[in-house]
Amino acid sequence: MRVELLCTGDELVTGLITDTNSTYLEARLFDLGVKVERVVLVGDVRPDITQALKEAASRADVVVVSGGLGPTADDFTLECAAEAAGVPLEEDAQVLDWLHQRYAARGLSPNPSALRMARVPRGSEPVRNPEGSAPLVVMKLGGAQLFFLPGVPREFKALLEGEVLPRIRATLDARPERTYRAFRLLRTVGIPESELDMAVAPMGPRHPRIVFGFRTHAPENHLKLMAEASSQSEADAALAAVEVECRQMLGTKLFGVDSEAYAAVVLETLRRAGATLAVAESCTGGLIAQQLTAVPGSSEVFIGGAVVYSEKTKSAWVGVPPDVLARHTAVSRETAQAMAEGVRDVCGTTYGLSVTGYAGPGGGTQEDPVGTVYCALSAPGVPTRCERISVTGDRDRVRLFAASHTLEMLRQHLLAAPATP
Which parts of the sequence belong to the MoaB/Mog domain (predicted)? Predict the structure, then answer.
């Protein structure tokens, strides 16, 4: 099945917002064993959208269109669809009723602009939107099935999950000579994408039914495995065989599969160990705590943290001795170690993590230039460990990789001694 995605809106082509719908759709279709062949971004220009629809429909079996279904003057995607199909727009009584119901629930009446969302191309199928006003619209254009979805990510995802993906899955299942697929996403940290590619390359000849792919989601790198065969059992078996080999190759660099998120994996590893954690952050400004507390139930093992951005708070809140700061500065191995030990002692946790460094663009010294970060782990029964890393890039990238490296120190420690918190 050939699938393309067409995203409309000036805000996308001018960089005002980031297109997240494409990546979400690509990931969900990959779950079905379908690779998106093309993603096209088009601004709010009627002839451009009309032409893009015709071209996509001439190439693809399915085209998912995002954006331009709302009530404002620049929402004219369905007008372009009607023009491309050579049919008029017509007010749909059912959509009109949905709009009145939705507005009435909020004590309002739809204005004339809102009622524009009830106009759909003749012969199309509108589907109620559970999260918004603009409906999903399904229509044929040439030999392609087109799905028009609102661009708002919440609404896009709800309609994609509830309507579009089930229909695509049904179409796949109905094909008489279909190719069966099985997939796995292996999530790694600490291994560059180029090294991942080199490590996987020799496996290709041994696993001819596997399509290897790669995705970078900094600071993670993901290995995509898709097996293709003439039956589901054969695809499942081919996937299982290559996954075993990949797991052996990746070792502890592999932290999760499919939808498993890094912070959730770290917290679950802590929970299984019966351990607790506190963090002291300087240059990351609470990023580690933010990542951990984004996971429901994190309070079971994550006790708390301190953003100790100044020397004063490093001493007052996590007990870094003033003479350590005076002798070694706030960005040093000694200060990082004292921060980790101090926050662990103050919070009474099994482990203490700390991070301090120069995120830039200012600061840094000749010995420790911008991008230098010290990450420390305080654990029971062993000396406090500190690692110095150097991260290139802007301030956000330094902070992101500093937080990741610090958490990875803890994860690797837990994997090496899971029964000894």
Answer: 4-170
> What does the mean pLDDT of the chain come to?
95
pLDDT higher than 60, residue 261: yes
The pLDDT tens digits of the residues spanning 156-178 come to: 999 999 999 999 999 888 887 77
Residue 421 has pLDDT above 70, yes or no: no
- Contact, 281 vs 308, CB < 8 A? yes
Query: Which segments of 160-261 does DSSP mark as H helices, in order?
Result: 165-174, 193-200, 232-250
Q: CA–CA separation, 46 vs 56, rounded Å?
A: 15
Alpha helices in 175-286 (DSSP H): 193-200, 232-250, 262-273
Assess contact for 124 and 94: CB atoms under 8 A.
no
Buried b / exposed e across 19-36, counting CB within 10 Å, b at 16+? bebbebbbbbbbeebbbb
Spell out the domains of the chain, with CATH numbers in brackets. Answer: 3-174 (3.40.980.10), 180-257 (3.30.70.2860), 263-416 (3.90.950.20)
Task: Supply 201's token pair.
Answer: 């390359």
